[in-house]
Design brief:
The complex is a heterodimer of chains A (237) and B (108). Chain A is mainly α. Chain A is built from eleven helices and no strands.
Chain lengths: 237, 108
Amino acid sequence: MGSVTSSRSAALFGARDAVGAAGVAMAATFLAFGAAVREAGLPPGWALVACWAIYGMPGQLVLVQAASTGFVSGIAPAVMGAIAVNARFLPMAIAITPLFGVTERKRLIPAIPFIAVTPWAAAMRAFPEIASSVRLSWFLGFGLTSWVVAGLAALAGFYVAGMLDDHARAALLFVNPLYYALLLAADVNKPAPRRAILCGAAAAGLTFILPSSMGLLAAGIIGGTIAFLWGRKRGSR
Amino acid sequence: MEAADIALALTALACLLLRSAGVWLAGGLGADHPVIAWATAIAQATLAAFVMLAIIAPTGALADVPLAARLFGLGVGVAVCLAFGRNLLPALLAGLIAMLVLRSLIPS
């Protein structure tokens, strides 16, 4: 990949990478999401817009759950909950921006909608092998392909919802955390990610004592900060 | 406009602002800046916490799968990933199959 220097080739490599394990995980998760949207009584267009405009599964699910109850607690709590569980977009955007090697911020505008867990984690894994001059092209190729896969899978899930029993849905829902676990495991030989994984996993227990919408965010901030300080103390990243 | 549409529009706007704010904040920083390392650690820790919760204490249909089957699937997937050059697709399929096999063997 380091030999890829043209933007077009890098975008094609990104698109190809997006239909591997990432595509399988993405399709499985969004298939289950599409089925949940239908069960909540929402239209297929809503599922598609949610996939493409939010592009963050935990937040999407918070809205679907609220919709299935008719927003009995109001719109504002549902929106606040969805934002809180997707607040990881902020540190992810901060972390990935310098890696693009782009000095003009406005050149990154097309990449902004694609900053989500799957493209972000795949990029953090792939970027060391990609020349910095074409990383943005790779990311756009990956992100756009993932977007299309997610949208089509959600629509498919919407229309096959009646055919998915609990066993099938459970299998689909298992694929997503398994994929993220594999992405993390692939980085476990590097000290900084290993510390963050350990601290984040340990901090996950906070979600049992905090409100569910804030628990994941708190676990990430506290676990990540401890991992960062641990690394600073050891004098390495 | 329906309540679901309003909620979707507000959430989408907020997510766009979060992403844009991150790009704007990091725009002047180098990859080695401590803020970048801190943000990276938070993002990775959040992902690790998400995985831990989704496996240990899931909600919805996955909660009906026995914990042992979830852990077995995770263990097999990670083991295949580490043993076979961190190739994610075979590891993903191996983990999923392992979870399904053990689930079928455990009486419900």
